[in-house]
Amino acid sequence: MRVRVLVFGVLKEMLPEEDSLELPEGATAGTVLQHFEVSTQTESPLWSAIAIAVNREYVGPAHPLAEGDEVALLPPVSGGSPVVALVREPIPTEKIAASLRQGEDGAVVVFDGIVRNNTRGRRTLYLIYEAYEEMALAQMGTLAHEARTKFGVRDVALIHRLGQLAIGETSVLIVVASAHRAAAFDACRWLIDTLKKTVPIWKKEHFEDGAVWADGEPFPAEIVKGA
């Protein structure tokens, strides 16, 4: 099968110009990264910090590829636009956190929201998240930019999972990189609290004895009243 390959930043100088790759059946996202690591014969700590996106969604290296997929190799970002995404694959927490870290950072704070196995004494089997996706992405982007301005942090990643999630999987990931720990902690707490109140994402909890939509936090008054 043939996939389209995109590279950015410093990878454009490190890797040969190949806008597509012919891969064997059963190839994964990690196969693409391994191809370039072997072909360049370059040992660099950068390889472990590269994030992979397939069809514009973050994926792990085990993600299976299909004919015509677009595979993007993403080096650590350099303080441009915040990383904001809705994804349906497992969120690679460590890789995303590593991709944000820069030499000028004195702290990287990570909030890794995971699916727990019970709610108020009822055993949870799995969760399903859905969103008004276009609006949710826009709102998440606004929050990420506002956090950078409000708290003076250098960079932010804000990623939420959609679809069915098993116990122990990450549902929402927030990473804040900053010169100072206090600002990073404050921004991270503000982001998760505000996301829960304003971003249109809903959770349905499936238990052994039934399923219910989770009670959400009330919208701020200015949203409900249109103020």
Automatic annotation (TrEMBL):
Any single biological process term in GO: Mo-molybdopterin cofactor biosynthetic process
EC number: 2.8.1.12
GO molecular-function terms, A-Z: molybdopterin synthase activity
The reaction(s) this protein catalyses: 2 [molybdopterin-synthase sulfur-carrier protein]-C-terminal-Gly-aminoethanethioate + cyclic pyranopterin phosphate + H2O = molybdopterin + 2 [molybdopterin-synthase sulfur-carrier protein]-C-terminal Gly-Gly + 2 H(+)
SUPFAM superfamilies: MoaD/ThiS, Molybdopterin synthase subunit MoaE
A Pfam family this chain is assigned to: ThiS
Superkingdom to which the source organism belongs: Bacteria
Alphabetical UniProt keywords: Molybdenum cofactor biosynthesis
Pathway: Cofactor biosynthesis; molybdopterin biosynthesis
Quaternary structure (record): Heterotetramer of 2 MoaD subunits and 2 MoaE subunits. Also stable as homodimer. The enzyme changes between these two forms during catalysis.
Family indicated by similarity: Belongs to the MoaE family.
Stated name of the protein: Molybdopterin synthase catalytic subunit
Organism of this sequence: Acidipila rosea
